[in-house]
Amino acid sequence: MTPVLLLHGIGGSSASFEPQVDVLSKRHRVVAWDAPGYGDSPDPERADIGWYAEQAARIFDEPAHVVGVSWGGVIATRLALEHPVRSLTLADSTRGSGTSPEAAARMRVRVDELAEVGAAEFARRRAPRLSSDPATRAKVEATMARVRLAGYRAAAESMATTNHGPLLGRISVPTLVVVGADDQVTGVAESRLLAREIPGARLRVIGGGHAANQECPDEFNEVLLEFLSEVEAARCA
């Protein structure tokens, strides 16, 4: 069974992939990580995307299919640029927040807000932007309410100092870009840009918002499994 690595967003954890793990595990060896500073993982040693990609690359002893949501997609992009992977899936993701000083500042100010109001209130404020579905929003909020300041601060800084835009043309593995049609965080336009700039990438717009993998899991899983099956079939041809 081929490996699949699931990388969560900046306000998430391995729990964010609960709708995917069992489905994918029927065909693949699946790891949904808790990034450094999240879940039970120790606090991060550094705050740059390259370092996070190095940690992710150590999880399997062979190239994996890498699926990244939001910040996890930015890590996944660097992983595909600097380490062997079987395929790349970017879900509701972005080039990074270093595309402009304003975008970087918006990312960094989140850390100040988290430090000021605490994780529970921070999650309550941000969750509605990630999903308009009440059940999904409640799950997102519960997960985000457990974020740790050290982990979030390093993740935010890694985003604020990253702009993969000039590097996207170097990605040479099969790539799927998935985005919720109602994503109000990174947005459909950003996903279209990723798909346009990555050679051979395909774009799929599905239902849901920024947390589309949780809000519309059946559609997300179907699109992802179809893509992974095609990649595996091509490798064996």
From TrEMBL:
Domain of life, source organism: Bacteria
Pfam families in alphabetical order: Abhydrolase_1 (PF00561)
Domain AB hydrolase-1 positions: 3-212
Record-linked SUPFAM superfamilies: alpha/beta-Hydrolases
Extent of the signal sequence: none
Gene3D superfamilies listed in its UniProt record: alpha/beta hydrolase
GO MF term (any one): hydrolase activity
UniProt KW keywords: Hydrolase
Keyword Hydrolase: yes
Record's protein name: Alpha/beta hydrolase
Organism this protein belongs to: Amycolatopsis thermalba
